[in-house]
């Protein structure tokens, strides 16, 4: 008797008669969504713009296939990129009567297969999964003879992950890096050594990481035909959501699942204009070239935007109309299906604290009109920008939640509440609930035993967050009872507890009542009635280290994602200075040129640089052109690190500005003291000497000095230029925090959600 993959019914068993009312699944779909839902045989490519109902279309496609008898639910695998998205998909499929369909992340699906097939294909137990790489990367760096800072470890880890998903082994890493145009955080040869040492350490200790899960699964399927055949007989119908974000490694695994020839029923869904994770190895090429690989494919475009007002959609379309590159050539022109709303609001502030305080007051006013706090979001480019908004909201007593924090059903108070509610549901005559008039009152009575009260506590912080979690359970009870009553079904405590269990399994959390604070990367896939896009200034968006044309275009797409999160109210703001009283040197992002009132068309203004060259482009060209470094005095080719940094021989005369050097040293000492770190963490003596000898007059010139990388340019560049000009920089405040590098927030978001999903369901 054939043994089945764990957790699935026999894929060859008779499913039975097609459920009555399969056509009811199609009710309410627009013509394009219906075309997706009825295209049951692949290959199918769905190009879906933001807010066009892509999840609705593909879940109804799967449900229609199941309920019409064309698909057996156990033979359907839907994959996406985050546990949240997979959980939402499972919840929708369950509501549509398509139980048994597997909706998972790439990593979760691959891990289940690897756990099942490893003993048969390789033998023995599967190596232990390494959940956190950083410590092992630190050890690998030490074995490679490198001393690295904590923030550098994150960059090294990201580079190793990028190399693995692009399928570059350590020896090939430098060449792969050069081919991609990606800028490494340090010498590529050093990173390759750390990468090799990291791989060796994993092997010695019997460990695999999350990228190994994909690599090993793909390798087993490639090398063991009988295993590949088993998987392909199990799964006949595939759906890939967010296909613009697949990496070369994920595409390799997908081709093994489907057989690679397109013969399987494959449906891919994506939008090249929402490609914002290229730093993790994601590429829209597979989506854009899908029809070339599969000429017979059915292609459906979804452009009816049901999320945003015409005013928001107009701005979103305007952003993309200025875009360049391959992804821009395939942009979708959205058409709003909603009634008109207010125009987007543009606000300029003198400094960041004023921007945060004013934004908090605007949110307070908005909440006063009846908008729920859970329907408001403040979105920013880097996580380091959140602190000032946390403080501003707390000062006004407005509850907030940080996106990417602990998952709802894993919070201690929610788990405890679940145990209490289950106990009450099992009790025949529980005195707590017997006198309650409705389900919500029963839930409130049970939660009251742990201090829950109908009115929220004063202030913010952990106490308020706990109350918000429990209040979300009460609101869910109200919504659950209303839905069951409307359907003519009973809504008792036992049914509600079962609903909670189902939601927890699907990670379908109820909304917590609080303003959302999130990075633009973390906001992908979410939506709110009101969105405040803050910090929209040059150097932040696009981020200062976006240098190539493609990197700048990805920053534009990031803003596009932010704009399209708003349903009705959209406010875009920026500040002219970091601190109160500071020099008003910042400019609003170039992406709003020609779109915000009073601005000129794109390209009409020139920023920094000379001869119309933007600092980022000038710096990139200088870095690419860098070759052997010669002494500026005697023109001897330099080989020693300190000499290269100074661009002169140690014995050649110095042109250093002694007074500037002393000012730089005093400033460095103050910054180091504020950070609680050694002075060399800010800049080494050699770097200060080089600055005092070159005396840069622009960020582009400063960036050419060895030791001034992207992060230090972003953090210290303006201060250094002021010192070089004989001026004093703004005082350093207690709340200053280092901006995080571009990969950090999006990469952390993906990892946090995927890792939680990577334990297979029992």
Automatic annotation (TrEMBL):
UvrD-like helicase C-terminal domain ranges (all copies): 310-568
Q: Does the keyword Ubl conjugation apply?
A: no
Q: Which InterPro entries match?
A: DExx_box_DNA_helicase_dom_sf (IPR013986), DNA_helicase_UvrD-like_C (IPR014017), DNA_helicase_UvrD/REP (IPR000212), HRDC-like_sf (IPR010997), HRDC_dom (IPR002121), HRDC_dom_sf (IPR044876), P-loop_NTPase (IPR027417), UvrD-like_ATP-bd (IPR014016)
Residue ranges for the region (Disordered) are 578-621, 726-762
Q: Where is the composition biased (Basic and acidic residues)?
A: 748-762
Gene Ontology MF terms in the entry = helicase activity
Q: Which residues bind ATP?
A: 48-55
What the entry lists under SUPFAM superfamilies is as follows:
HRDC-like, P-loop containing nucleoside triphosphate hydrolases
Annotated HRDC domain residues: 654-734
EC top class named in words: isomerase
Which superkingdom, per the lineage?
A: Bacteria
Which Enzyme Commission number(s) are on file for it? Answer: 5.6.2.4
Q: Which UniProt keywords apply?
A: ATP-binding, Helicase, Hydrolase, Isomerase, Nucleotide-binding
Query: What reactions does this protein catalyze?
Result: ATP + H2O = ADP + phosphate + H(+); Couples ATP hydrolysis with the unwinding of duplex DNA by translocating in the 3'-5' direction
Q: Which residues form the UvrD-like helicase ATP-binding domain?
A: 27-309
By sequence similarity, the record places it as follows: Belongs to the helicase family. UvrD subfamily.
Its protein name is: DNA 3'-5' helicase
- Source organism (scientific name): Kitasatospora phosalacinea
């Amino acid at each position: 008797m054939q043994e089945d993959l764990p957790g699935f019914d026999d894929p060859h068993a008779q499913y039975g008669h097609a459920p009555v009312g399969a056509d009811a699944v199609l009710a309410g779909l627009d013509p394009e969504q219906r075309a997706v839902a009825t295209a049951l045989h692949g290959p199918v490519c769905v190009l879906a713009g933001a807010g066009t109902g892509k999840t609705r279309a593909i879940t109804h496609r799967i449900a229609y296939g199941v309920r019409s008898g064309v698909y057996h639910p156990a033979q359907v695998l839907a994959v996406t990129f985050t546990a949240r998205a997979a959980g939402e998909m499972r919840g929708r499929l369950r509501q549509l009567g398509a139980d048994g369909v597997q909706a998972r992340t790439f990593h979760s699906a691959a891990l289940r297969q690897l756990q099942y097939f490893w003993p048969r294909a390789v033998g023995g137990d599967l190596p232990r999964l390494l959940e956190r790489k950083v410590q092992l990367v630190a050890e690998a760096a030490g074995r490679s003879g490198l001393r690295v800072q904590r923030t550098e470890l994150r960059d090294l880890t990201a580079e190793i992950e990028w190399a693995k998903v692009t399928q570059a082994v350590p020896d090939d890493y430098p060449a792969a890096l050069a081919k991609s145009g990606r800028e490494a955080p340090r010498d590529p040869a050093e990173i390759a050594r750390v990468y090799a040492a990291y791989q060796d350490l994993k092997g010695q200790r019997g460990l695999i990481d999350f990228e190994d899960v994909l690599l090993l699964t793909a390798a087993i399927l490639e090398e063991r035909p009988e295993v590949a055949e088993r998987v392909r007989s199990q799964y006949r119908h595939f759906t890939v959501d967010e296909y613009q974000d697949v990496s070369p490694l994920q595409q390799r695994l997908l081709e093994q699942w489907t057989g690679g020839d397109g013969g399987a029923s494959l449906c891919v869904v994506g939008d090249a204009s929402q490609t914002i994770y290229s730093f993790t190895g994601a590429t829209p090429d597979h989506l854009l070239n899908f029809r070339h690989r599969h000429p017979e494919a059915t292609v459906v475009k979804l452009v009816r935007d049901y999320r945003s007002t015409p005013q928001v959609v107009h701005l979103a379309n305007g952003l993309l109309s200025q875009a360049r590159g391959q992804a821009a050539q395939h942009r979708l022109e959205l058409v709003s299906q909603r009634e008109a709303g207010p125009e987007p609001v543009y606000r300029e502030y003198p400094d960041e604290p004023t921007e945060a305080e004013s934004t908090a007051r605007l949110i307070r006013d908005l909440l006063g009109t009846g908008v729920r706090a859970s329907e408001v979001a403040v979105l920013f480019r880097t996580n380091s920008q959140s602190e000032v908004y946390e403080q501003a909201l707390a000062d006004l007593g407005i509850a907030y939640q940080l996106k990417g924090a602990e998952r709802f059903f894993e919070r201690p108070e929610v788990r405890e509440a679940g145990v209490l509610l289950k106990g009450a549901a099992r009790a025949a005559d529980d005195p707590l609930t017997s006198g309650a008039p409705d389900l919500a009152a029963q839930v409130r009575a049970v939660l009251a035993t742990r201090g829950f009260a109908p009115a929220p506590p004063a202030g913010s912080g952990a106490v308020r967050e706990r109350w918000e979690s429990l209040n979300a359970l009460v609101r869910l009870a109200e919504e659950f009872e209303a839905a069951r009553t409307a359907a003519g079904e009973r809504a008792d405590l036992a049914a509600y507890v079962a609903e909670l269990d189902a939601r927890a399994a699907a990670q379908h959390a109820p909304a917590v009542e609080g303003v959302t604070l999130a990075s633009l990367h973390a906001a992908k896939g979410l939506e709110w009635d009101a969105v405040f896009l803050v910090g929209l200034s040059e150097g932040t968006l696009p981020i200062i280290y976006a240098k190539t044309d493609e990197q700048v275009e990805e920053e534009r797409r990031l803003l596009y994602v932010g704009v399209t999160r708003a349903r009705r109210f959209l406010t875009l703001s920026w500040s002219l200075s970091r601190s109160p009283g500071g020099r008003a040197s910042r400019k609003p992002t170039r992406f709003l040129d020609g779109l915000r009132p009073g601005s000129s068309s794109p390209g009409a203004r020139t920023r920094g640089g000379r001869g119309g060259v933007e600092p980022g482009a000038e710096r990139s060209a200088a870095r690419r052109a860098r070759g052997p470094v010669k002494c500026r005095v005697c023109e001897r080719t330099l080989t020693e690190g300190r000499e290269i940094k100074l661009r002169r021989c140690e014995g050649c005369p110095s042109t250093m500005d002694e007074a500037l050097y002393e000012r730089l040293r005093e400033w460095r000492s103050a910054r180091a003291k504020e950070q609680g770190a050694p002075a060399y963490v800010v800049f080494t003596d050699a770097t200060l000497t080089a600055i005092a000898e070159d005396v840069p007059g622009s960020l582009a010139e400063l960036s050419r000095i060895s030791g001034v990388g992207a992060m230090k340019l972003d953090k210290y560049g303006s201060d250094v230029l002021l010192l070089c000009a004989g001026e004093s920089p703004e005082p350093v405040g207690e709340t200053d925090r280092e901006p995080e590098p571009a990969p950090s927030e999006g990469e952390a978001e993906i990892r946090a959600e995927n890792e939680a999903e990577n334990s297979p369901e029992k």
